[in-house]
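Progress report, Aim 2. The chain analyzed during this reporting quarter is listed below.
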Amino acid sequence: MTRITAVIFDWAGTTVDHGSLAPVRTLQKLFAHRGIAVTEDEARRDMGIHKKDHIRALLLRKTGRRPAEVDVEDFFAEFKPMQTECLAASSNVIAGVPETVEQLHARGIKVGSTTGYTRPMLEILLAVAASQGYVPDCAICPDDTAAGRPWPWMCYLNAIRLEAYPMHTMIKIGDTISDIEEGRNAGMWTVGIARTGNMIGLTAREFAALPRSEQSARIEAARRSLRRAPTMWPIASAISILWSNKSKNVSRGASAREPAPFGLLARPHHCLALHRLCRLLSLPVQLLRQPAAHHR
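Predicted structure tokens for the chain:
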């Protein structure tokens, strides 16, 4: 029987940079230099896409007209060194990610990644992550393909380099709508990250300082936002793939007739047991409803 071959992770907000703060702060700083105020919500709205596309979308929203490409290039040229400087100090690996990857590898499951950052920016992330124990088998950015998210090309290139196939035996995990659309368009299972990502936007310390009721409310709001994307399961963090309920095999948002993949059950405050990963990710794919590819 066919089993899971690979998991493709996003970077900021999923495996590094709890709260996905580095791109938000840089975009706000960039536009402030040009006399344009950008709120955090505005900066987060299109998170996950190629950073040049993100700048283009912000210019359209703030000016009310389609920006000239020369202006987009001008903004992007200033953005790149600002983002590069910010990344080195704001890209710590999220707790539990190295252990999760170790368990995936122990099960023969390959680990890839995609991002909206450029190749030089991704190289900084790779170096910081490696120093903290996280080393994916493959790391792809929009520079390596024809386009970034929501197009599926980065996932396809991961599959080629990882030698993982077919696409419905792979899982895409990320914290933005564009992550989910990317995986969906590639014909993969998709899982959305709530607690550590763009939808909540807090550091681990800031989130931990919230009252328990506020934590739960924010995670549920993030789940609702992520559920707008088709064929996905919202979970608290990347390591939540390692936890399941013994008596239930349905995630919040999935019906009893359509079991969530691999026993996912998204709850915000459980202590996640790493040793259960092998059992969860060895479930035959044929037992689950396969996602249908929808190319944009």
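The beta strands are 6-9, 110-113, 170-174, 189-193, 232-235. The chain is about 40% helix and 5% strand. These observations will guide the mutagenesis work planned for the next reporting period.
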